[in-house]
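Hello again, I could really use a second opinion on something today. I owe you a coffee for this, so here goes:
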Amino acid sequence: MSSTRVALVTGANKGLGFAIVRDLCQQFQGDVLLTARDEARGRAAVQQLQAEGLKPRFHQLDITDLQSIRALRDFLSKEYGGLDVLVNNAGIGFKTGDPTPIAIQAEVTMKTNFLGTRDVCTELLPLIKSRGRVVNVSSGMGFKALESCSPELQQKLRSETITEEELVGLMNKFVEDTKNGVHRKEGWPDHTYGVTKIGVTVLSRIQARKLSEQRGGDKILLNACCPGWVRTDMTGPKAHKSPKEGAETPVYLALLPSDAEGPHGQYVHEKKVAKWQFMPQFYP
């Protein structure tokens, strides 16, 4: 087993994830694992970074496949005895105006962005070493979606005491409500991607609370962040930021110094803590 430190980024063969891996290869003292669902694309991305003189390693990971997550977990455990930095970047979104019915968009997007991210955390958080760092990439669209929820839903989703089970129940209810054509009546917005990112942010708050209760002495810091509006295949060419600029906040959180007391359990935008209770104006 290697004593080398290790950082891992999900969904990293292109776009924001690729930019995060590149930055970590330049700044993190240890191995950096680039993971991707498609092995050929993942290995091609690794070769591209190797051509720049960087040395990422590749491991296949499909966050919607529990076997794939567990194979990665076992590899990390055997090879490194754990994990120092986890960046949950993998996510999908339908383009604005996509004619796919909202019920299908909701189910597909939730399966990856929220349920997949949660499964990765369930399997990998126990491996996080003392003074480890966990970054869940969320979105300002989650804030917009939260503002569009009914006051009753907002109260539940902003609660300091909501449990993981309650959150999963709400996210599953959103998908069911879209299938039954009652999501608006039940207080949900039409923005499926935004709702999944509400889930990621609230999950991060819950996970941080659990880490403080169960492993407080280990000084692990876990946060959600908004990278900003980044030009990727998903968002298109009009977005304000390059992937490199979008990587700044996730990488900042991934590399918080070992003696840092925080942020922890926060939602971070432009390297600053944003209150989950108030919506900053992130988007045009």
User: Anything to note?
Assistant: DSSP finds ten helices and eight strands in the chain. Residues 192-215 form the longest helix (24 residues). Residues 278-284 have pLDDT under 50 and may be disordered.
